Amino acid sequence: MAELAPNGKVLESVWDYPRPPRLERVEWRIQVRHGGVVVVDAPWAIRILETSQAPAYYVAAEFVNPRHVRASDHRSFCEWKGVAHYCDVVVGDGESGWVPRAGWTYPEPTDVFADLAGMWAFYAQAVDECFVDDERVESNEGLFYGGWVTANVMGPFKGGPGSALW
Fold first, then answer.
1. Mind giving me the DSSP string for 26-58?
2. Whole-angstrom Cα distance, residue 110 to residue 128?
3. Are the beta carbons of 94 and 111 closer than 8 angstroms?
4. Is the pLDDT of residue 90 over 90?
5. Of 74, 139, 146, 149, which shows the fewest CB atoms inside 10 Å?
6. Cis peptide before 161 (omega within 30 of 0)
7. Residue 75 burial (10 A CB sphere; 0-12, 13-18, 19+)
8. pTM value?
């Protein structure tokens, strides 16, 4: 029988995740909050499982509050998924309510990742709080990867100093 973490989910090591990455739909509530405002509240998500990285959670656009996201002109390229388009999170007035490049989407992902089309992911390190079910997540170290660390996911995780060549 699989060992369970304190959050009730099966313990996983990121070193058992595949490369290339795998998509997995989960029936877990996903929330993103910033400045006291709920930016995302989704009853399910697709998570990306990739060797050495904490999972990134993608939610359907219908669960993202459009009043609090603004398109950014920033783009990046993923060898697996294609070209990512970014958004800023905007909550209230002033600099503390504006977070540049806090989320991303793949409008036209590669065929293998077609299920991600139009779905959004957010950096836990950019916003005030992110949750999987009722568990507040930790962000992975560094600014490149958007993984969410929960009690059931074990590292070490790629993203911190000295891990670029792993």
1. E---EEEEETTEEEEEES-EEEEEETTEEEEEE
2. 31
3. no
4. yes
5. 74
6. no
7. exposed
8. 0.95
pLDDT at 141: 87
Are residues 68 and 39 in contact, defined by beta-carbon separation less than 8 angstroms? yes
CA-based nearest residue to 105, from 162, 53, 59? 59
Q: pLDDT, tens digit, for every residue of 56-84? A: 999 999 999 999 999 999 999 999 999 99
E strand segments, the chain? 12-13, 22-26, 30-34, 37-42, 45-50, 53-58, 69-78, 82-90, 98-105, 120-122, 129-132, 135-136, 138-139, 148-149, 153-154
Q: How many CB atoms lie within 10 A of CB 18?
A: 9
Number of Cα atoms under 13 Å in the Cβ half of residue 118: 4
Better pLDDT: 161 or 47: 47
pLDDT in tens, 139-156: 988 877 899 999 999 999
What domains can be seen in the chain, in order of their start residue?
Answer: 15-140 (2.170.150.40)
CB atoms within 10 A of CB 8: 10
